Amino acid sequence: METQSRTTRAGGRLHILRREESLRSRQYRGVFVSVIYEWNSLEILRIEMEPGSALVDREIGTFPVIHFIIEGSPVFVVANQSCDLIPGDSIALRADESYRISNAASSRSIILTILDKSLEPARNGAT
Prior knowledge:
By secondary structure, the protein is an all-beta fold. It is 0% helix and 44% strand. The protein has strands at 24-28, 31-39, 42-49, 54-56, 65-71, 75-78, 81-84, 90-93, 99-102, 109-116. Strands 1-2-3-10-5-8 form a six-stranded antiparallel beta sheet, with no helix packed on it.
């Protein structure tokens, strides 16, 4: 599928950078990840987690990341410390921080995630 790029100006204010026919997405073990925006080294994801599901950092890439909680109450485990988040909360993590997100609640959680892909992730301890 080819991406359609288009610029539209309405009164000099509206600028559509890119229009997709469909989003890239994947679903596994109760976690639905869709890429909603991608440009140069920036990627924005929508992560929807069903009750009882879990996600580890390497499943979306080991990049600096900011997670914004939109709905639900996911639990983040970073460096063996647990943190329950609620809608309106956000958490920023470095590329070298391993983490796990779980949804132990009885309702789904939705997270808006911003990945900074400007730096290649460290592999096997190399910088």
